[in-house]
Amino acid sequence: MRGLVTPSSEIGVVSGFVLKLIRGSLGLTQADLAEHLGVDISTIQGWETGKRPLTAQRAADLLRLKTRLIMLGGSPAVVASLQDAIEADGILSLAVAAGNRPISDGMNPLAAAVHRRSLVHMITWPLTGIAPPHLRSLPAAQTRGPVAKHPSLSREDQARFFDHLVATVDTKQTAQRPVLRRQAMYLLGFDRRTEPAKWLSTKHKQAFVASTASADLPAGIAARSSSIALARHGDADPLRHFIRNTLSSETHAAANLAYWAYWLGEITESYADDSYLIAGVEDHAWSGGRLADHLLKHLDDPVHSYLNIHSLWILILAKPDLLGRDHKLRLRTAQRVEQALDTGFDGETRDELINLRCAVQLAGR
Pick from 78, 79, 81: which is nearest to 120 by CA? Predict the structure, then answer.
């Protein structure tokens, strides 16, 4: 098929590691799991190391595997995350195989759907060593020899993955696929090499300037992504400009909340592009509780704190009954807001924290 890059070898390190964590949570050895599943121990070893990738398994076989793991006592939520892990391995496989060549946008998985945090954490896990939050408490599996702490890619494969993202951003095809460009640029933020970091900073600044000049909602989300990436590299001014100017628009503020809700899985429908933002916050059935919990946990985030505080205030304005109907959330909000006020925020951010304090007090009456 024209434009399709077929990996010379599939990558299966992420899904294999998730399977190993599930086995560890069940207290089983590889031999135990092999017996329960009716396969050879070499099959379990191949799945867990990625040498026999789960990405190569038939859908029916994967369904049977996930069903059996749950019946053995595996957490349904953790077993369900195998799907994200398999998708992450597929994305890594295609990118590593392509190297510094772009993939036809019609075949590029980065253009197929707007990513959620659950998938992005799986993709970046072998690059950063930081496990997805819901997997961090799982015990290590029993195994012989040294125990790996996270899935890993060789330096060569990591370089090929990031080189492919650079080629993707530079291709003219991304002009017609803004979600492809935005998601490739976001993932490039995890490239630790010096020269690509300088190149990416320039690209983000260009994207930020172009996006903030447009009233288009997807352009606003592109500006959001670029300003966050620049803040991650030490330049917080674009993020503050984005909050003060772009998010002063009610439609952009609603789109920001909708993006948060989608990213965290509160908006459950899947979308191929950012068009779901056009519906805004009021047309999506989501409570806001998950988003509020996330923002409260990260009010003091060194990169996102200004955006998190602003988003929390806009969330409370958009869903005024949120604090009133959830007593525990109201108490957490009161505690975290006071802690944030003690850290010394000033200007508009401090005003928003004081407004949040007042909202908590009013909701408690």
Answer: 81
